[in-house]
Inverse folding.
């Protein structure tokens, strides 16, 4: 049995979750409590990957990141970096499909914060950086964790768009969902079951752990 | 000491405010929506007027056509309505939040005194949700004063308290003002409270100052 | 074209309306009035449900109008999908008159289970594997034997376990002793469309698909054709479904496909 899909899946999901978390939190905070023309259009655009069929997302990514794509050709020329058919492609697919979940959670978490708390910090001489890290971030943390967990789960299970941009190259770009898909399609039920159990075990225990950890660390923050 | 003069267009009217004050207690009264809190926010730098000047001592907070001094550089103490204590920090952390690293040593004595005057020394390790409304109000006051502000703004500081605690806190406010000797601007809708606390009372309606009274007239009126 | 749709919609609506209007009086004495009506209908109007492999889509759609014109009273309704899925559907009772498969394996299964009419099975067309490259590719290869794995970054094929074209591709490359050396370069698509997409967008240097698939893409060029000796014959077997209510009309359609006229129609779309 080849265990590379497990390592690859964890690597892809972890890296994409990390990037999605940073980007989601940053963009959501930037847009929170700010109103400008076209904000709802921008937000709808962020959520688009949620409603689009995976193959459409995958095709869009190919257009952007393909060897002849807008971004892909540029990366290839300047950095000799190929996205298509590599694990980086899988990371990008994961990022695109899990970003909406992170953004939504983070935006809701920031919207729900009492603006006066940040203002209180400002009147006490806190820089915007300190306001964010000492007040906004810890108070929004439960909502951010929810987004983090969802993003990781989504990244771990991503299949459709990944198959298109990362291709299926056993030993190089085969994530667990791909291994499951091709095992089922070719009737290798034993192999499929094995990977299903693995992905459930890892996904479930990771989510369980994050939930438990954040509850333990956040209990004292909540008011009640 | 504090010179405020500004115009600001709001949704339903234009605010036109002008007053000057020494290290006294100025009370703003008026119906809700008359712009009381907006005046506090303007002085604090949380919102900015359309034009005018706001000067504290010799420091320019706001001047038309110039970049306004950000809230964090104004050295303002602000007690928000409902106090806005940080729920995830202990009382001690809340109070020390605004004290700069460099000033920590010299602040120890001041804060010790504050805690003593307000009688909240025993609450330091508690979280905001573990203390009563009156205690929260005192912690909020201590936090607003801990960084040694040049102006103290209080938005409905006593409205959430029951009658008994309220009277006690009014006395504390007056005592603190005596010790601190800086401009206090208090927003309230309670006329009795305004008369008990204020050296001056400004009556507001729709963003305009409609009347102003001084303590001596008040006293003589009784 | 728009007018045509509108007209069709209008006709459909009026049929519906008339149908509704008729229903009321019929209820009074339904047994008497209904029986002659149902007896007449099959002879007059036949809707043939044809479950066909997805690769036949364009060819069959093109054939539809001509066939219906020549066979009055017959309408063709297609249901395209992968051969495996279609056979499962039919097995599960999905209505179907003709089954056109892209793989003998699926047809064998159906035959073993008695789901098709005995003796109706016939191979109506076949395909060959072709080596394709992007139409802008400057590759000078003209045969499969010239493939040099060391000069290739990515080679798109169908997944050999699950996609029929992949199975034949693997067979061919094994025959040519290229399968092992190409291993790291093979990007395995979950269907033919993906293989085409990878080559069309220039992400894979080469790909292998059926000649009929290469035919429908404007962005690839065919560099070489496979030799039929290198892999099992790629034939398309068709048969009348046992559960069909229009076996006669179904057999007629199948005969048409295997006739010279039908074969020619298919060859226009890259079939052999």
């Amino acid at each position: 049995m080849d265990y590379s899909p497990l390592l690859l899946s964890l690597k892809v999901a972890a890296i994409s979750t990390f990037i999605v978390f940073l980007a989601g939190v940053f963009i959501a905070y930037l847009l929170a409590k700010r109103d400008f023309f076209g904000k709802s259009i921008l937000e709808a655009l962020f959520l688009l990957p949620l409603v689009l069929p995976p193959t459409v997302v995958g095709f869009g990514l190919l257009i952007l990141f393909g060897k002849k794509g807008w971004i892909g050709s540029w990366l290839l020329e300047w950095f000799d970096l190929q996205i298509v058919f590599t694990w980086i492609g899988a990371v990008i697919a994961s990022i695109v499909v899990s970003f909406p979940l992170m953004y939504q959670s983070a935006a809701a978490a920031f919207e729900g914060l009492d603006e006066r708390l940040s203002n209180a910090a400002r009147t006490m001489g806190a820089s915007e950086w300190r306001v964010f890290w000492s007040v906004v971030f810890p108070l929004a943390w439960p909502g951010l964790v929810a987004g983090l967990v969802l993003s990781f789960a989504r990244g771990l299970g991503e299949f459709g768009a990944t198959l298109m941009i990362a291709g299926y190259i056993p030993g190089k770009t085969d994530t667990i969902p791909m291994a499951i898909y091709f095992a089922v399609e070719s009737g290798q039920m034993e192999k499929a079951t094995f990977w299903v159990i693995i992905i459930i075990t890892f996904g479930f225990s990771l989510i369980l752990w994050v939930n438990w950890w954040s509850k333990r660390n956040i209990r004292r923050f909540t008011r009640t | 000491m504090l010179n405020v003069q500004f115009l600001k267009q709001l949704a339903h009217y234009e605010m036109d405010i002008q007053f000057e004050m020494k290290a006294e207690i100025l009370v703003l009264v008026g119906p809700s929506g008359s712009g009381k809190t907006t005046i506090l926010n303007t002085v604090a730098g949380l919102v900015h007027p359309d034009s005018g000047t706001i000067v504290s001592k010799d420091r320019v907070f706001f001047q038309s056509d110039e970049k306004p001094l950000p809230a964090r550089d104004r050295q303002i103490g602000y007690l928000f309505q409902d106090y806005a204590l940080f729920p995830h920090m202990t009382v001690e952390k809340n109070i020390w939040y605004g004290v700069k690293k460099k000033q920590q040593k010299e602040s120890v004595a001041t804060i010790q005194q504050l805690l003593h005057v307000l009688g909240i020394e025993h609450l330091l390790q508690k979280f905001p949700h573990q203390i009563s409304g009156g205690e929260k109000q005192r912690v909020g006051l201590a936090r607003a004063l801990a960084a040694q502000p040049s102006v103290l703004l209080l938005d409905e500081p006593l409205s959430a308290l029951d009658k008994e605690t309220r009277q006690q806190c009014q006395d504390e406010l007056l005592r603190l003002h005596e010790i601190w000797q800086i401009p206090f601007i208090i927003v309230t809708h309670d006329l009795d409270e305004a008369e008990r606390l204020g050296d001056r009372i400004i009556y507001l309606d729709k963003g305009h100052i409609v009347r102003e009274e001084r303590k001596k007239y008040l006293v003589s009126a009784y | 074209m728009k007018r045509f749709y509108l007209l069709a919609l209008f006709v459909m609506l009026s049929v519906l309306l008339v149908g509704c209007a008729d229903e009321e009086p019929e209820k009074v004495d339904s047994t008497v009035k209904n029986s002659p009506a149902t007896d007449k209908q099959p002879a007059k109007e036949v809707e043939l449900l044809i479950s066909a492999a997805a690769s036949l889509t364009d060819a069959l759609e093109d054939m539809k109008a001509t066939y219906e014109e020549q066979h009055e009273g017959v309408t063709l309704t297609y249901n395209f999908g992968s051969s495996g899925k279609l056979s499962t559907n039919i097995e599960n009772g999905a209505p179907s008159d003709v089954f056109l498969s892209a793989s003998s394996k699926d047809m064998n299964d159906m035959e073993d289970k008695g789901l098709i009419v005995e003796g109706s099975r016939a191979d109506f067309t076949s395909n060959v594997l072709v080596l394709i490259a992007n139409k802008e590719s400057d590759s000078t290869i003209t045969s499969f034997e010239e493939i040099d794995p060391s000069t290739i970054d990515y080679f798109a094929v169908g997944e050999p376990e699950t996609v029929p074209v992949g199975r034949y591709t693997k067979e061919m490359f094994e025959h040519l002793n290229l399968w092992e050396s190409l291993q790291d370069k093979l990007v395995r698509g979950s269907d033919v469309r993906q293989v085409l997409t990878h080559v069309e967008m220039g992400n894979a240097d080469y790909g292998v698909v059926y000649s009929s698939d290469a035919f429908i893409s404007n962005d690839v060029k065919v560099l070489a054709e496979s030799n039929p000796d290198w892999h099992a014959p790629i034939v398309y077997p068709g048969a009348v479904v046992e559960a069909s209510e229009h076996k006669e009309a179904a057999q007629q359609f199948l005969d048409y496909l295997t006739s010279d006229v039908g074969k020619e129609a298919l060859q226009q779309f890259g079939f052999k």
User: Anything to note?
Assistant: Chains B and C do not touch (no CB pair under 8 Å).
